[in-house]
Amino acid sequence: MVKLKISVALALILLVLIVVFQNREAVETRFLFITFTMPRAALLAITFLVGAAAGLLLSFGMAKHLPHSKE
Question: What residue spans define the domains of the chain?
Answer without folding.
Answer: 22-60
